[in-house]
Design brief:
Layout lengths: L1 H33 L1
Protein name: Oxidoreductase
Length: about 35
Amino acid sequence: LEDNSLKGAVLERPVLLLRMSGEHRLWFVYHCEQS
């Protein structure tokens, strides 16, 4: 069970990081275009 949860966390973390970096990039581009 612990091994499964560990694998799940390792697999989920890159997805969250990619999603967050993508949103940050969109927000940054939008903010730069506005100013």
